[in-house]
Amino acid sequence: MAAGLTSGLSVHAPETDLIGVFTGDGAFEPHTVHTHYFGFQVPDAGIGAYTYIRYQPWFPLCQGGVVIFQGLDHRVPLDAAYLDYRMTMPYPVVDGSRITTANGYSVEFLELGRRARITYDSDEATFDILQEAVTPLVARGAVIPGENLQESHEPGGSEQFMHCTGELRLRGDTYPVDCYMPRDRSWRQSRTEDRGGRHDPPIAWTPIYFPETGLAFNQVGFEWPGTHHFAWVCDQGSLRDVVSVRRSVEALHPYVPAPLRQTIVAEDAAGVTHRFTGEALALAPIPAWPNAGAYDSVVRWTDDTGGVGYGPCQGIWYDAFQRLLKERGHGR
After folding, report:
1. Assigned domain for 170 exists
2. Domain range for 208
3. Contacts of 331 (CB under 8 A, 6+ apart)
4. Comparing C-alpha atoms, which of 1, 8, 25 is closest to residue 240?
5. Can you spell out the DSSP letters for 279-315?
6. The whole model's pTM is what?
7. How far is it, in rounded angstroms, from Cα 95 to Cα 124?
8. How many domains does the chain have?
């Protein structure tokens, strides 16, 4: 991994939102996946929502659903305030640009590349959230290092910050939603789920949006300097590479190997230095595959001017890191 890996940023066409959503749209090989991730937050209530579809066209099956977590008191995914995540479902039903999974989670693209609506309805949790773009549909490669194994499949991905508005009803309580969150997707990636993954150290994704200044910052990387996987900023519509990132974790969750407090110092291609300090308001492990652990969190970020932004911090780790923490007594 080298700093500045994201040189030469580009923007995807809106039609990439629908790559891989139809059965028969290329089976490729058993490890091929396409994904759609959307999230939303209610920071004042310490609530985060992780919604996900993972398409596995070879079979064809999908997995995914809804995870809603509140606060910091989580050790396992079942501690979440609401969990409906299924590992094996039929391929989603597609009606025009509306995609619906067997457990009732829907993504509807009202305008490809710009506007989407996510919905879900059950006795204990219901939401209807409109998501409208505030940044371009930025192109990326593999979100997890090493996933671009089958270059002949033309793997790709995209990321975009969205203004999310709507309502969440959770176990009898109603919460208005008005936040800024990233959406993310992959297509034709090769996710083998191998033991040990493709990188032993844990890796984290820390997208942040500051509504008062219109600054969006996004990076995926390891904790030590010079090892970010990719990163970019969008400053009031100006999209720029990030050439260096230093992310330091000051405190871990007592049970989940995920940051409660962290600092990011980054330099973009225009020579501007960005410094952000983050504190987790909510944090929980989320479903992954058995050879990996994953988490999501709601993070309140502060910049050097005192400006406040929010975003998720999501990460993944493997058995070598888990054993290291066990030897050090973490979570015991």
Report:
1. yes
2. 14-327
3. 75, 254, 255, 256, 257, 325
4. 8
5. EEEEEEEE---TT-EEEEEEEEEEETTS-EEEEE-EE
6. 0.94
7. 26
8. 1
Exposed / middle / buried, residue 24 (Cβ in 10 Å: 0-12, 13-18, 19+):
exposed
Residue pair 233/214 in contact (Cβ under 8 Å)? The answer is no
313 assigned to some structural domain: yes
- The CATH code of the domain that includes 60 is 2.40.370.10
Residue 151, in any domain of the structure: yes
Q: Locate 227 and state its tokens.
A: 């090892």
How big is the CA angle at 295 (ends 171 and 251), to the nearest 5 degrees? 110
**In 3-state terms, what secondary structure has residue 227?**
coil
Backbone angles phi, psi at 145, to 5 degrees: -55, 135
As averages over each run of 10 residues, the pLDDT of the chain (332 residues) reads 51 96 83 96 98 96 98 97 98 97 98 98 98 96 61 82 98 98 94 74 93 96 77 94 94 95 96 97 96 96 97 93 87 74
Does any domain span residue 3?
no
CA atoms within 13 A on the CB side of 162: 30
133 in helix, strand or coil? strand
